[in-house]
């Protein structure tokens, strides 16, 4: 696409709204925490394959909270914000004179480059990269829905919701029949294996990571109904400026926060109770295709939407945001750089091909390290915001140059 077809470059700092950036900044903490179990390669993992099934009281509490509140609940938040941002970009381009076709071409170029970023991220650092999957999903949903009317977008979201509920129906019937072991095949292969955290050969680790990434990217980009559901709702919400103008949508946001988080946490609770031994269930029930895992996955989008609503309500308070809020929002405006920085700090420190610290940490100490890594990125973003507020993070700068060409300059 020639740069002459783009009406304008990326959004300026003065044009940014607080709520989306605050949500992205907090989201990065949740992502950082939810990825911690992937690095604990020396610990024993149970039937679910996600978290160690051992540890101190602090470790077990950490695992319980993560399964209830974070696992399969953070990526829907990311997907909603991604869909929201796609629509913001499209609307900004068409409002400044670009044709709808040219605006979609811009989105397509951005999606293709996100796949490239994801490939590099997985090759060098992190198998569970999600930028590639969102790049694929943006190509698909951008082509099908971004130029369509609200009714078409909502019909698409309803179809995605129906697919989510259908996927959970076998689990619901298994629970109703008291036959929790009907589904699944325990044990699930530990995520530390497919993420190559314990591989001490860098080349072998890269091969494993890329294999996992290819599956995550293709399955997540083409087949993930929960992702499609929240991304399409992000399309719809962006057209109504729900996050930019939260005061106009208080009723919607309050109901979404209460209902979404309640459903999301209740859906993850049985798997969390089973993991810590408070609920006795067959091992198959918590495996990758098990009944409790399916229920947790189906209710994840509700929690993600609830979290978005909470962040919007916090950002929409009439008082001036404090220094901490502005620092987190500064990271949110550089969310791609922050996301990649997590892996840049984590992988060489924790993986067996690096310093191998992951073999000596537990769930609780890993969570503390994740918080420290996130705080480091918050401080870095706040410093950049203070001295160069119109400059994006390094990853955003590169993506913008590849997407917009010469118009990407701040």
From TrEMBL:
Keyword Transcription part of the UniProt annotation: no
Ranges of residues in domain DUF418: 237-405
A Pfam family that the UniProt record links to this protein: DUF418
Keywords of this entry: Membrane, Transmembrane, Transmembrane helix
InterPro entries named among the record's database cross-references: Bact_Transport_Assoc, DUF418
Transmembrane portions of the chain: 22-44, 64-86, 107-124, 130-146, 153-172, 213-236, 257-278, 298-315, 336-355, 361-383
Biased composition (Basic residues): 400-410
Annotated segments matching region Disordered: 390-410
Record's keyword annotation contains Transferase: no
PANTHER family found in the cross-reference section: INNER MEMBRANE PROTEIN
Name the UniProt record assigns to this protein: DUF418 domain-containing protein
Organism: Streptomyces millisiae
């Amino acid at each position: 696409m020639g740069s002459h077809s783009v009406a304008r470059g990326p959004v300026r700092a003065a044009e940014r709204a607080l709520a989306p950036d605050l949500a992205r900044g907090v989201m990065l903490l949740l992502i950082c925490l939810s990825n911690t179990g992937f690095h604990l390669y020396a610990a024993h993992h149970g039937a679910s394959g996600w978290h160690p099934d051992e540890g101190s009281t602090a470790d077990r509490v950490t695992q319980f909270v993560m399964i209830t509140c974070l696992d399969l609940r953070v990526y829907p938040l990311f997907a909603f914000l991604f869909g929201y941002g796609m629509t913001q970009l499209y609307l900004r381009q068409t409002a400044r004179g670009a044709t709808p076709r040219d605006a979609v071409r811009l989105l397509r170029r951005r999606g293709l480059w996100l796949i490239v970023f994801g490939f590099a991220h997985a090759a060098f650092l992190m198998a569970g990269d999600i930028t590639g999957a969102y790049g694929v999903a943006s190509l698909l949903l951008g082509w099908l829905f971004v130029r369509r009317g609200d009714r078409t977008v909502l019909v698409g979201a309803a179809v995605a919701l129906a697919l989510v509920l259908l996927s959970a129906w076998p689990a619901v019937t298994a629970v109703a029949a008291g036959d929790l072991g009907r589904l699944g095949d325990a044990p699930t292969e530990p995520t530390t294996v497919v993420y190559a955290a314990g591989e001490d050969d860098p080349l072998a680790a890269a091969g494993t990571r890329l294999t996992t990434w290819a599956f995550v990217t293709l399955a997540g980009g083409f087949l993930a109904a929960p992702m499609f559901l929240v991304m399409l709702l992000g399309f719809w919400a962006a057209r109504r400026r729900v996050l930019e103008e939260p005061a106009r949508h208080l009723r919607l946001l309050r109901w979404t926060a209460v209902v979404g988080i309640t459903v999301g946490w209740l859906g993850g609770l049985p798997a969390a109770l089973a993991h810590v031994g408070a609920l006795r269930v067959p091992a198959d029930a918590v495996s990758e295709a098990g009944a409790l895992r399916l229920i947790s996955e189906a209710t994840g989008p509700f929690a993600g939407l609830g979290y978005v609503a909470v962040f919007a309500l916090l950002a929409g308070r009439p008082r001036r945001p404090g220094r901490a809020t502005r620092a987190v929002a500064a990271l949110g405006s550089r969310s791609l750089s922050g996301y990649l920085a997590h892996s840049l700090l984590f992988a060489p420190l924790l993986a067996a091909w690096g310093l191998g610290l992951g073999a000596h940490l537990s769930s609780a100490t890993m969570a503390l390290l994740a918080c420290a890594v996130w705080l480091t990125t918050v401080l870095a973003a706040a410093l950049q915001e203070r001295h160069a507020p119109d400059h994006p993070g390094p990853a955003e700068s590169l993506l913008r140059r590849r997407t917009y060409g010469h118009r990407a300059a701040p």
